[in-house]
Structures are given as structure tokens and as C-alpha cells.
Amino acid sequence: MGRRARAKEGLDTELSDLPPELRWREWMGRVEAVIFASPEPVTREVLGSVVGRDCNLDLIIDDIRDELRGRPYELVAVAGGWQHRTRKNFAEAIRAAVGAGNDGKDLSQAEALILACIAYYQPITRTELSSFFGKEVSRDTIGRLRGLGFIAAGPRSPQPGAPYTYVTTKAFLSHFGLQTLRDLPDMEMLEEAGLLSKEKMLAGEFPDPLPADDDRFGEDEDDDEEAADRTETG
User: What is the rounded CA–CA span in Å between residue 228 and residue 165?
Assistant: First the structure.
């Protein structure tokens, strides 16, 4: 369990003057309010700053989820934290009300496939991506995926010229409702759906897929994209 953030000065987190039941209800209210107010998934450390030291956050989350049963939204674990999300069975109604793709993050089929390849084989260079698909993956496509926040520059490759690699980000996990990369669909399922080809993987001599127990994801980098492109060999 990670270390909790220090409680905000002046905020009574222990609530020792309240009876246990009221104390628990207040902690639940604080946790739900913080998650509700945040546009991003809220981490355990942040939530730990508004409750007492002996508060079990996992039980708090469970109790909040129980109270949300039957409502059109729920509390989900995503991208290393918790976030309120509308339930999937209301997706059609939401699209009808506000329109599809208003977030500007709709991907073309080609972009989706390139993003999937990065997710499964990160860290990976643009040259390796191009080899996988049998044609050049353009800088514009990489730039769009970076602009959406789904990928970032990873460690430099040991290849000649030390080109940048690309990795997925927390924003990628959040957008696709993943807690960690372990939640990615099984590779065989994607092959059966015709989205990825084992033959192409072998022909491209790609590294082994990301291990199932690997929690890696790319943090958003401050690396300049143009600098990354200048170092690429492909």
C-alpha cells in the first residue's frame, strides 16, 4: 500500500469526536466528493489525505459502490485511481443527447491498430511499427496519437542512432477504462477478431509481447516531439 499524502492543514481527518458510524459516513462523503469533483482518476494517496489514518479506503470504496447500485453511474478503478463513469448501458442515450465523438478522440481504424501495436509491444520505435504494418507509419499519425495524450516518448532504442521509442500513457489507460496494461484484451482474442496477425508479428521479428504481470505504462513526457523525430532512423 502506497504512502498516504499528508492531510491538508486545518482539515480534521481523524474525526475522533464523532461516533464510529457518523465518522465512517463523513469519510465516505469526503472520498466520493473528491472523486466526483476531479476530471481525472483520483489516486489512493490523494484520497488518503482527507480521511483518518485508520480508515480502510478499499472498504470505503466498496460501500460507495453499494450505494450507487441502480444509478446510471458507478465508481470504477482506472489508470491507477478511481473515477465516476456512466454505466455502459446508457452509452447510446448519451450519444443521442450530446453526439458521438465530441471529445475529438475518435480514432481511425489505422490509428487504432497502431495504438494497439504500441500498447502491446512498447517500448517500440516508429521504424519497428512501419515494419510491422508493411508500410511507413507517418510522423503525422504519431503526432496525432501524442496530441491526444495516448502515447509519449519512451526510452531511446539501442539501435543505431538511438531513436526514441513510444509508450502508452495514463491518459490511454483512463480513456479505454483500463486500470493497468494487464487489463488489455488477450492477444488471441485480437487475432480471432482479425485485428492483429501472428504471422506479421513473426515476420517483423518483434520482441515478445508485454508480460501479463507487467504494470509499465509511459508517463507523459516533456520531450520535444520534433527532437524525437530528428533522432529516428525511420
Answer: 9
The four Cα atoms 221, 105, 76, 168 give a dihedral, to 10 degrees, of -30
Local structure of 79: helix, strand or coil: coil
Over residues 146-192, the pLDDT tens digits come to: 988 899 998 888 888 788 899 998 888 888 878 788 878 776 666 66
DSSP result, 47-81:
HHTSS-TT--HHHHHHHHHHHTTTSSEEEEEETTE
Residue identified by cell 478522440 is 105
- DSSP string covering 143-172: HHHHHTTSEEEEEEPSSTT-PEEEEE-HHH
Cβ atoms within 10 Å of 25's Cβ, excluding its own: 12
Domain ranges of the chain: 20-90, 109-231
Tell me whether the CATH fold assigned to 20-90 matches the one assigned to 109-231: yes
Q: Name, in order, each residue with C-beta under 8 angstroms of 105's C-beta and a sequence gap of 6 or more.
A: 148, 175
Q: What is the pLDDT of residue 45?
A: 93
92/15: higher pLDDT: 15
Query: Is the CATH code 1.25.40.80 the one for domain 20-90?
Result: no
| Structural fold of domain 109-231 | Arc Repressor Mutant, subunit A (1.10.10)
